[in-house]
């Protein structure tokens, strides 16, 4: 006991002294350059090598079967906040395929929490210890990295390896700054209205052809005691029906409010919001509720529809046992004038850190990332359909992909979240949520938002 | 003579030196960093721009910050009642019951679980298919809704649900306190015919003063900084109506990338907590 | 203390029993839900009884998928070392502030106490920065040091209040017998403080064990990540397995509580003036 105490005292005293020396520096510098100390690399490499070692062993067996040459491969770290809650078996399947095709071992470091991810990226991205690959958020947050020269220009990778796998120009545009594409698509998601097929069949309903049919359908459901559409209460989710209804009226209206050329108080916007208000008042929508409640209510038929990214098919299958095409299917909200329907998409960026020692390796990995084998593995595990060459065996998913490719009847538009300045966006999201909770009127909401928009766009 | 005296003095400081060093290196340096950051505009990656008191001035004009401040005061106010009075009441009842150890273990149990586990359980229970459904079956169908999504009401829902996990440690401290006080003054008071209420307020509580001060100050500081429960249950929403200062700080810094502004919130929070605890601590030093 | 009439005692027993049932209900249902399958849990109500028995499947799932056991070993090291070191250093500081002749006691008290005052989130960036430079990032030493540091203020705070209650005569008479300050602390004060030391040891062990934010930020590799960080990586769609993993991960803190249980009864024997 006594010995332990003395040992502890000694240990803490030495360490404290060491830490003091270092922390003086940590408090003083604000924009630290990428200095590295030998002491730190020592311990860290030991850690990574360890994981790398075991993983290489796993993947080695698989690659032996395919007979491809994998000798060149090293290890590339891949940090992200997107795969935190994925099952280990999924990850092994996906990165095993990456290893097969590219020869590189992916060492994934998942972060389930934004603060830790932000901190870790912020403090390492200027350093050679930065991860080769990492996911980020598109829009202003990606722009910040671009402006500081922290991410690689991936235009050549797009030109040579990504476009020809069937990724649309619109996705590249979402990552383009000054004519250069700075990210590859980690995921491309299409937002569609899911409906519970059992409920639709029960009341003899079919997918709506016109907006009026859509409203009628809601009315039928409502009169039968089913809540037509579920809203979720996540703080960012306020824009989902806002953009859907605006685009159903006229996609130019949507684009106009995003870039500030049309005022939120414009009479056409007011008109759409009145339609929405009317739908809210008729209880076509649930109150915004917890996401797990939305899914539970949808699966047991208390709610008939929800507007979600198309990969939710996979989620509803795994977590609720609903089979796409049988228990659940999708449609896109019809346009009010019967014209083109709008599919909103979102794309999460996958970047290469410019200062990373693994930069070249990471670029090599990206060359293989969009090959059908790899993307098929992604699709099988998570439902992602990032390229058009993915083998989709579900007709329900194929239907959505066909719609996205059908330029005569559908148009792809980047969702609201990444399309308007972020400070204004956050403000709008809060106001929209307030509106959907029935705590503000159309007029109140729009004039409050416009006041903020005036400040943002400098009108 | 003088030399050995000064050596002796030096020796006494050795006792506090490690603790002071640890705290200075880890925490005081951090608050200095935050203080400095609060005068800058910084998105985490670009150059920092000095903006003087701008972050602070903007905060006090921001209605979200004021909501957050109000919510913090609500949390602190209720914690004074709920984390002081309730555990004390439980402790008194437990020491007077027949199965003290059993009760103590049951009421402490949730405190051994992590906040994440507790939050997860509470979220399941508070989701529509949990408690609201049961209340609905008891004849209040209008209450079947997501309680955590009702602006301003959700703060109180979270405060009440927090009792389940927050009670244990304070109760434990109070039970120890109650068990150990000298019984002679109590017997004397009983002979003089003091009522139960008087007995406690006049005799027992003053005897437990040290324990009460510890629990009070600890609860006060913790409720000022409350974060985990809210983050798991509502993330401060809907539309930032259930944020407290710690959440606002987190939201501004890590979600909205306004690190300067987040630091300013942290500094405001720190100043308030230092101010409040200073008087408590000064009182406890006055007696020396 | 005092006498309680039989009638009051029965009423108290009844009230506490009802409350105890309420208290244990969430845990009871958590345990019940561990027997459900993933889809069954998601579709059904939290209160429903399990239809089948997926307990074994869930157990296999958390063993293979969550890999929490490695995290539990790491956490055991961090929480045990962190709490013990903090108790040692905190006790020394508390003793000095309460009983030794140092100047500006209140100032020193405030300096140490300030560690609990600041909102914890502000520590992330500066400490990450220092750790990256010193090579403490993603190391066991780094985690132990941090947990030691963050536990010290609370230990010092509780023990100082306890030591303050011990009469000076006691230490002065020991001094006349030739005991040094350190001997007085070890032989007289520390044994007296068995109960409060047990409480702080338990509470700080529990705190370190349950910490998520710092464990997640200051580590990267699976070998170093503490248990809560591993737990947070689990698939949240699989709630029954999640609940099971959470409860399994909480067992050490519960055992530790039971282990220390009898020490709490020793009470603050010398508090109160």
TrEMBL record, chain B:
Residues 69-280 form the ABC transmembrane type-1 domain. One of its GO terms (cellular component) is plasma membrane. It is found in: Cell membrane. Pfam families: BPD_transp_1. SUPFAM superfamilies: MetI-like. The chain crosses the membrane at residues 12-35, 73-94, 106-129, 149-175, 259-281. PROSITE patterns: ABC_TM1. GO terms for biological process: transmembrane transport. It is a multi-pass membrane protein. Belongs to the binding-protein-dependent transport system permease family. This is Sugar ABC transporter permease. It comes from Parablautia intestinalis.
UniProtKB/TrEMBL annotation, chain C:
The keyword Cell membrane applies. It is found in: Cell membrane. CDD domains: TM_PBP2. Its main location: membrane. One of its GO terms (biological process) is transmembrane transport. Residues 72-260 form the ABC transmembrane type-1 domain. It is a multi-pass membrane protein. Keywords: Cell membrane, Membrane, Transmembrane, Transmembrane helix, Transport. GO terms for cellular component: plasma membrane. The chain crosses the membrane at residues 12-35, 76-98, 110-132, 144-163, 184-207, 241-260. Pfam families: BPD_transp_1. Belongs to the binding-protein-dependent transport system permease family. This is Carbohydrate ABC transporter permease. It comes from Parablautia intestinalis.
């Amino acid at each position: 006991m006594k010995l332990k105490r003395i040992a502890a005292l000694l240990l803490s005293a030495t360490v404290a002294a060491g830490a003091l020396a270092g922390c003086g520096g940590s408090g003083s510098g604000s924009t630290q350059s990428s200095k590295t100390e030998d002491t730190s690399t020592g311990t860290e490499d030991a850690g990574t090598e360890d994981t790398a070692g075991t993983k290489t062993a796993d993947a080695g067996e698989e690659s032996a079967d395919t007979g491809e040459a994998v000798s060149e491969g090293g290890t590339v770290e891949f940090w992200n906040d997107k795969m935190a809650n994925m099952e280990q078996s999924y990850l092994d399947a996906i990165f095993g395929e990456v290893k097969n095709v590219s020869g590189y071992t992916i060492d994934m470091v998942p972060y389930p929490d934004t603060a830790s991810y932000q901190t870790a990226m912020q403090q390492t991205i200027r350093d050679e210890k930065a991860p080769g690959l990492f996911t980020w958020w598109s829009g202003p947050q990606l722009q910040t990295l671009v402006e500081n020269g922290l991410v690689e220009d991936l235009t050549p990778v797009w030109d040579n390896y990504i476009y020809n796998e069937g990724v649309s120009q619109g996705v590249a545009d979402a990552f383009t700054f000054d004519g250069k594409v700075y990210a590859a698509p980690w995921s491309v998601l299409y937002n569609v209205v899911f409906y519970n097929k059992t409920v639709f069949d029960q009341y003899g309903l079919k997918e709506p052809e016109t907006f009026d049919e859509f409203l009628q359908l809601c009315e039928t459901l409502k009169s039968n005691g089913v809540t037509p559409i579920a809203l979720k209460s996540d703080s960012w989710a306020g824009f989902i029906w806002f953009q859907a209804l605006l685009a159903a009226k006229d996609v130019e209206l949507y684009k106009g409010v995003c870039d500030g050329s049309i005022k939120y108080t414009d009479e056409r916007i007011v008109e759409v919001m009145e339609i929405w208000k009317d739908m809210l008042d008729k209880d076509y929508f649930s109150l915004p509720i917890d996401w797990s409640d939305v899914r539970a209510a949808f699966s047991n038929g208390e709610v008939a529809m929800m507007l979600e990214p198309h990969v939710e098919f996979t989620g509803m299958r795994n977590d609720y046992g609903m089979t796409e095409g049988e228990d659940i299917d999708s449609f896109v909200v019809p346009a009010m004038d019967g014209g083109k329907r709008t599919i909103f998409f979102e794309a999460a960026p996958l970047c290469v850190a410019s200062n990373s020692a693994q930069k070249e390796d990471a670029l090599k990995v990206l060359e293989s990332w969009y090959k059908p084998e790899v993307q098929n593995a992604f699709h099988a595990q998570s439902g992602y359909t990032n390229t058009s060459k993915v083998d989709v065996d579900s007709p329900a998913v194929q239907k959505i992909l066909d719609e996205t490719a059908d330029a005569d009847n559908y148009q792809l538009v980047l969702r609201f979240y990444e399309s308007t300045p972020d400070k204004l966006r956050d403000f709008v999201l809060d106001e929209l949520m307030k509106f959907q909770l029935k705590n503000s009127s159309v007029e109140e909401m729009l004039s409050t938002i416009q006041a903020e928009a005036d400040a943002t766009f400098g009108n | 003579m003088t030399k050995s005296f000064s050596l002796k003095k030096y020796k006494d400081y050795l006792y506090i030196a490690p603790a002071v060093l640890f705290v200075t290196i880890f925490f005081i340096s951090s608050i200095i960093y935050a203080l400095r950051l609060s005068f800058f505009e910084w998105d985490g990656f670009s150059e920092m721009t000095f903006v003087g008191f701008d972050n602070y001035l903007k905060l006090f004009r921001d209605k979200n910050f004021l909501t957050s401040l109000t919510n913090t005061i609500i949390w602190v106010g209720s914690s004074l009642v709920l984390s002081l009075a309730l555990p004390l009441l439980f402790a008194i009842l437990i020491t007077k019951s027949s199965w003290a150890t059993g009760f103590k273990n049951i009421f402490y149990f949730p405190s051994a679980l992590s906040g994440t586990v507790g939050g997860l359980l509470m979220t399941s229970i508070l989701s529509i298919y949990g408690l609201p459904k049961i209340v609905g079956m008891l004849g209040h169908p209008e209450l079947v809704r997501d309680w955590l999504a009702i602006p301003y009401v959700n703060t109180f829902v979270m405060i009440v649900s927090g009792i389940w996990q927050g009670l244990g440690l304070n109760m434990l401290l109070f039970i120890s306190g109650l068990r150990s006080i000298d019984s002679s003054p109590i017997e004397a008071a009983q002979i003089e015919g003091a009522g139960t209420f008087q007995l406690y307020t006049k005799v027992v509580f003053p005897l437990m003063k040290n324990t009460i001060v510890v629990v009070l100050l600890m609860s006060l500081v913790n409720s000022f900084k409350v974060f985990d429960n809210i983050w798991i249950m509502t993330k401060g929403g809907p539309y930032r109506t259930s944020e407290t200062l710690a959440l606002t700080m987190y939201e501004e810094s890590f979600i909205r990338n306004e690190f300067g502004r987040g630091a300013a919130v942290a500094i405001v929070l720190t100043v308030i907590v230092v101010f409040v605890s200073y008087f408590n601590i000064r009182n406890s030093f006055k007696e020396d | 203390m005092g006498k309680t009439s039989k009638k009051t005692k029965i009423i108290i027993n009844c009230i506490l029993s009802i409350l105890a049932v309420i208290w244990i209900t969430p845990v009871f249902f958590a345990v019940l839900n561990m027997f459900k399958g993933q889809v069954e849990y998601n579709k059904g109500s939290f209160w429903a009884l399990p239809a089948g028995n997926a307990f074994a499947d869930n157990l296999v799932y958390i063993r293979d998928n969550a890999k929490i056991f490695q995290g539990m070993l790491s956490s055991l090291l961090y929480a045990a070392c962190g709490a013990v070191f903090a108790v040692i250093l905190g006790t020394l500081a508390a003793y000095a502030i309460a009983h030794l002749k140092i100047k500006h006691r209140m100032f020193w008290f405030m300096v140490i106490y300030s560690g609990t005052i600041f909102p914890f989130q502000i520590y992330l960036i500066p400490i990450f920065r220092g750790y990256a430079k010193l090579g403490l990032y993603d190391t066991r030493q780094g985690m132990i040091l941090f947990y030691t540091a963050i536990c010290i203020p609370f230990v010092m705070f509780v023990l100082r209040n306890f030591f303050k209650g011990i009469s000076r005569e006691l230490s002065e008479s020991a001094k006349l017998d030739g005991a040094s300050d350190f001997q007085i602390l070890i032989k007289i004060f520390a044994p007296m403080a068995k109960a409060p030391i047990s409480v702080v040891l338990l509470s700080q062990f529990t705190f370190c064990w349950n910490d998520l934010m710092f464990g997640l930020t200051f580590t990267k590799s699976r070998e170093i990540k503490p248990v809560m960080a591993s737990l947070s990586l689990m698939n949240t769609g699989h709630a029954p397995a999640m609940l099971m993993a959470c409860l399994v991960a909480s067992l050490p803190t519960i055992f530790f509580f039971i282990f220390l249980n009898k020490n709490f009864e020793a009470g603050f024997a010398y508090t109160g003036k």
